[in-house]
Amino acid sequence: MSRIVYVNGQYLPEAEATVSIFDRGFLMADGVYEVTSVLGGKLLDFAGHQVRLARSLKELDIEAPCSDDELLEIHRELVARNDLTDGMIYLQVTRGNPGDRDFAFPDPATIKPTLVLFTQSKPGMADSPVAKTGIKVISIEDIRWGRRDIKTVQLLYPSMGKMMAKKAGADDAWMVEDGHVTEGTSNNAYIVKGGRIITRQLSNDILHGITRAAVLRFAKEAQMVVEERPFTIEEAKQADEAFFTSASAFVMPVVEIDGASLGNGTPGPVAKRLREIYLEESRKTAI
Ligand code: PMP
């Protein structure tokens, strides 16, 4: 079935939705995005995604394409028009179409940002079978730019990392800089050692995951010990367990790093428990 997507104020069948070849998102990767999960027809962590979007736009001097209320309305309209039960809503804002190619930013008074949203259906995504067996990661060098806290659409290296993982018979890659893990290609990385949950602290080196914020809050509420600091791949391989978080994977157990099994090679109790708590609590506040 053809989707109804949103482009600059219009709801259109996907085949009729277009963006200019001069759009700076296409020519310069000059844009930002958000992915919000939908469970049971409701949006998870919506406020968090909205706040991060506003921050990404501000950091790049891109005008907000619409108000917060309008943004929520568009998300809800897309859920309704596409009869979406479980899945994601992808949102992208670019600096727009100046009608030509130029490195200098166009005048925001005349060139308005491009806003695109579409749905991706993933029935039963909360019961993903991989979450029961866990996933395998490899480590790769982190050669991305220095503002990874901004959620830009420059995703070529993360895509290459994912392909390096597949080629190595793994599922994903954790990126390493100066000997320490920054994050996964599209997720935040954690290890568990002696009952302590260890994850890199927030900085410009990593994306400030919305799922990360929620999971750390729930972990602390459940009296778990959280240590926010960098960790090495060697430390990760010696950990009792590992996992990652993202809006679309929730909490995902990692059972192998660079070919070394963690614990007994099955998802660990902390990751399993955090996945349960995250799903339960975020369904409660879904809108
Ligand atoms: N880090 C990176 C590099 C990501 O691409 C993502 C997901 N887009 C995350 C972390 C996780 O962020 P969130 O929990 O907000 O999906």
Structure description:
The structure is a single chain. This protein is of the alpha+beta class and 287 residues long. The chain contains eight helices and 15 strands. The chain has helices at 24-28, 46-59, 68-81, 130-133, 156-167, 210-221, 233-237, 269-284; strands at 4-7, 10-13, 31-39, 42-43, 87-94, 114-121, 135-141, 172-177, 180-184, 188-193, 196-199, 225-228, 241-246, 250-257, 260-261. Strands 7, 8, 9, 10, 11, 12, 13, 14 and 15 form a nine-stranded mixed beta sheet that branches. Strands 2-1-6-5-3-4 form a six-stranded antiparallel beta sheet. Helix 6 crosses helix 8. Bound molecules: 4'-deoxy-4'-aminopyridoxal-5'-phosphate.
Topology:
Layout: E1 4-7, E2 10-13, H1 24-28, E3 31-39, E4 42-43, H2 46-59, H3 68-81, E5 87-94, E6 114-121, H4 130-133, E7 135-141, H5 156-167, E8 172-177, E9 180-184, E10 188-193, E11 196-199, H6 210-221, E12 225-228, H7 233-237, E13 241-246, E14 250-257, E15 260-261, H8 269-284
Parallel strand pairs: 7-8, 7-14, 11-12
Antiparallel strand pairs: 1-2, 1-6, 3-4, 3-5, 5-6, 8-9, 10-11, 10-13, 13-14, 14-15
Helix pairs in contact: 6-8
The structure holds 4'-deoxy-4'-aminopyridoxal-5'-phosphate.
